[in-house]
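Q: What would this complex look like in 3D?
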Amino acid sequence: MISILDGFSEALHLLLTFDASLFEIVLLSLRVSLTAVFFSALIGLPLGALLAVLKFPGRPVLIVLINAFMGLPPVVVGLIVYLLLSRSGPLGVLGLLFTPTAMIIAQTMLITPIVASLTRQAISDLWVEYRDLLHSFDAKPWQIMKTLLWEGRLSMMTGILAGFGRAIAEVGAVMIVGGNIDHATRVLTTAIALETSKGNLGLALGLGIVLVGIAVVINILTLSVGHVVGRQTAQGQIL
Amino acid sequence: MSKILPLNLSGISVHAGGDHLLQDINIDFDKGPLTLIIGPNGAGKSLLLRLCHGLIKPDKGVLTWQGSDAAHAPRHQALVFQKPVLLRRSVCENIAYPLRISGMFTAGEIADRVADALDHSGLAAIGDRPAKVLSGGEQQKLALARARAMRPEVLFLDEPTANLDPRSLGQVEALIRETHESGTKIIMTSHDMSQVKRLADEIVFLYDGHIIEAGPAEKILNKPTSREASAFVKGDLLP
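A: Here is my prediction, written as C-alpha cells for the whole assembly.
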C-alpha cells in the first residue's frame, strides 16, 4: 500500500530532477487557471459591484442564480461547454474543443459566480458604510463602483483566491473539454486522475502534493502582495 | 456675492411608515449667522440636515437654492457626518478624494488645497498616516478638513463633536469657528446646550419633527416663547 511518505518522496524526486513533463503540466495548469481567474475577475468584480449597488428589476433573481451557480458541478459546466464547442454546437466552427482555450472557458464559467457573489457581499457591506458619503460627494456611478472595488480590494482578493482554488483543483470540466491529451491539454488534476487509474499511485500522490504546494504558494504570494499594497495605499504611496 | 444662498424650505414634510418625521417645515437659511439646529434626540435634526444637503427627498414641499432647484448646489455645499466616514486611505488621500472625483481641479490645485487643509486643521504632521487609525478627534478634524478643502459656501455639520473628549471638542469647535469666520455658512445640529451657547448666532429649535421656534440665539436662549424650547434650554426633561 502506497504511503503519504512515498508520495512526498515521489513529489520531491519529480521536482529535484526537473522532470520536463511535470513542469509542462504545471505550467499548463497555471496558464489555464490563472487566465480563467483573470477573465472571471474581469467579469465577476464589476458584476458583483453592480449587483450590490444598483437596484433594477430581476436583481433578486440574478443574485439567487449567481449564488446557486457557486456550487455548479464542474462536470455539468464541462458538458455545457462541450455542447457549445463540439463540431455540431453553435461555436463548433471555432475549433476550440480539446484545446487549452476550451479549458479556460469552462473554468471561467465555473468560477465567475464565485468571484461575483463574494464581491457582491463585500461591496454590499461597504455600500452601507459609504453610500451617504459618496452621494454627498456627488460621485458618478462609475466612480462609486471604482471606489468601492478599491476600498474592498482585500475582500476581492479573497474572492479571487477562492476562485483560483476552485479552478486549479477541478478535474471534471477540464477533462471533458480538454480531453487530457498528453503535451496538449493535460493538467495536474487530469494527470492525477490518469495516473490513479493506471495504478501509479505514488506518481499520482506526488502530483497531488505538487498541486497543493502550488495552491499554497499562490495564496502566500497573493496575500503578501495584498498586504504590501494595503500598507502602501494607507500611507498614500499609491493612487 | 452668494452662489447658492438663500436656502429656502417651504412646506417640507418627510414621512416613513406612517410616522411624520418632519412636518410642514418652513424656513430660510441665508448667508451670515452661524446656525444651530437644536432639539432632543429624535426631533429630526439630522434628517433636516440630510434633506438640506440633498441626501433625501421630501415627501411634500419644495426646497430651493437661490430660488431654483438643487441641481447646481452639490458643488457648493458639503456635509460632515456625526460619525466620520473615512476611506481606507491616508489622511492626504481622504482630503484629495472629493476634489479629484469632482473633476474640477488640476493635480496641482488638489495638492495645494490638501496642503492648505492639513495646515488649517493641524493635521500636517500626520498627513501620511492611515485615516482609520486616527483618534476620534483627529478623524473628525479630518472630516472637517476634507469638507473645507472643497471650499463650500454652505457647510452642514451633523453633531460633529458628539463623543469627543473636551480637548478634541475645543479643537473641533475652533475649526468650526475659523471656517465660519472665513465666510462659510455653517448650519450645524447639536443637543449640547453649552456648545449652543458658545457657538450659535441663530437657533432653530426642532421638536417632534416640527420647527417650534427659530430666531437669534440670544432671544431663544433667554426668552424662549414655547414650553418645549423653554424646558430644553433649561435642561428640564421633555415629554
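A: To summarize the key features: The CA atoms of residues 119 and 155 of chain B lie 19 Å apart. Chain B touches chain A at residues 50, 53-55, 74-75, 78-79, 81, 85, 87-93, 97-98, 101-102, 127-132 (CB under 8 Å).
Q: Very helpful, thank you.
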